Amino acid sequence: MSASTHETDEEFDARFESYFNRKDIDGWEIRKAMHDLLSEDLVPEPRIISAALQACRRVNDFALCVRILESVRNKCGNRVNEIYPYVIQEIRPTLDTLGISTPEELGYDKPELAMEDVYEIH
Amino acid sequence: MYSVIASKGAHVTRGAAKLSTSAQVCGSISKIGNRDVVGHGFNGEASYMDRADYPFPAVRFREPASDFTAVLEKERGDWNKLSIEEKKKLYRYSFCQTIAELKAPTGEWKFCIGATLFMSSLSLWIYIWMKTYVYSPLPESTKEESKRAQLRRQLDMRIDPIDGISSRWDYDNDKWK
């Protein structure tokens, strides 16, 4: 995944998509690539997210799919109402094929559980 | 393989992440039980922390205990057959808090503002107490009458007559120019 100095947006998307499409990708590499992708100043293209979800399916990690969708939602910042529905609309076929629930369907778009304050535990 | 891991201490290496058990990764004392090491995390340590900027921690939140065995076995099959409850259980197996929970407001700002205002008012009361019981009264020279007398004396002595205070005094008419 070496980045060339003059990479177009199209090449960037294709690089990540082909990385996630590797047949022998493992969970470590999915997380590493997602961290790299999320550290960029962008919201990932739906086709990259679809490829990442397919990769999660190959390594049998359902929770990672939901976490990826949550992190993409978080990445939309204060324009989440514009961008996130578009992303979900574009990856809907992948979600339905693989049986992945969105964070909203699991009720994770709003806080579900409260956690005890660590300063109050002892 | 073991010697390589031992030399790296608690740091997760590519090879170590592929091991089925993670106890070896942490050297002689295991701090993560038999949780799976699944990634690099935010700094390469085999530790768990929910962070919005690094959403994928290095270890799973739960150990693969018997109450997860069934749902983990089901995860290998078609995900369309998983119920919502099972999906949520799988999520909480890997992660402690959702990102929405992580970013939920804590209400701590109310405590901060309250504490700040309390400390400010406390210091004001301390000042008032000091003023009342500790400090002696201000000297005579700070009174209006004394200050006027002092100014008059400066003018009478013609202090700084070229471009200072006395140069701006009209001595013929006894007033400021």
From TrEMBL, chain A:
Predominant localisation class: mitochondrion
One example of the protein's molecular function in GO is: metal ion binding
Query: What PANTHER family does the entry give?
Result: CYTOCHROME C OXIDASE POLYPEPTIDE, CYTOCHROME C OXIDASE SUBUNIT 5A, MITOCHONDRIAL
InterPro entries xref list: Cyt_c_oxidase_su5A/6, Cyt_c_oxidase_su5A/6_sf
Query: What name is this protein filed under?
Result: Cytochrome c oxidase subunit 5A, mitochondrial
| Compartment(s) | Mitochondrion inner membrane
TM region positions:
none
Primary role? Component of the cytochrome c oxidase, the last enzyme in the mitochondrial electron transport chain which drives oxidative phosphorylation. The respiratory chain contains 3 multisubunit complexes succinate dehydrogenase (complex II, CII), ubiquinol-cytochrome c oxidoreductase (cytochrome b-c1 complex, complex III, CIII) and cytochrome c oxidase (complex IV, CIV), that cooperate to transfer electrons derived from NADH and succinate to molecular oxygen, creating an electrochemical gradient over the inner membrane that drives transmembrane transport and the ATP synthase.
Q: How does it assemble?
A: Component of the cytochrome c oxidase (complex IV, CIV), a multisubunit enzyme composed of a catalytic core of 3 subunits and several supernumerary subunits. The complex exists as a monomer or a dimer and forms supercomplexes (SCs) in the inner mitochondrial membrane with ubiquinol-cytochrome c oxidoreductase (cytochrome b-c1 complex, complex III, CIII).
Recorded family membership: Belongs to the cytochrome c oxidase subunit 5A family.
Alphabetized, the UniProt keywords read:
Heme, Iron, Membrane, Metal-binding, Mitochondrion, Mitochondrion inner membrane, Phosphoprotein, Transit peptide, Ubl conjugation
Tell me what organism the protein belongs to. Notodromas monacha
GO BP annotations listed:
mitochondrial electron transport, cytochrome c to oxygen
The pathway entry for this protein reads as: Energy metabolism; oxidative phosphorylation
Bilayer disposition of the protein: Peripheral membrane protein
GO cellular component terms, alphabetically, are: mitochondrial inner membrane; respiratory chain complex IV
From TrEMBL, chain B:
What is this protein identified as?
Cytochrome c oxidase subunit 4
Query: Which species is this record about?
Result: Notodromas monacha
- Name the GO cellular-component terms: mitochondrial inner membrane; respiratory chain complex IV
Question: Which superkingdom does the taxonomy of this entry point to?
Answer: Eukaryota
Tell me the InterPro entries matching this sequence. Answer: Cyt_c_oxidase_su4 (IPR013288), Cyt_c_oxidase_su4_fam (IPR004203), Cyt_c_oxidase_su4_sf (IPR036639)
Which positions make up the signal peptide? none
What is this protein's function per UniProt?
Answer: Component of the cytochrome c oxidase, the last enzyme in the mitochondrial electron transport chain which drives oxidative phosphorylation.
Classify the protein's membrane topology as the record does: Single-pass membrane protein
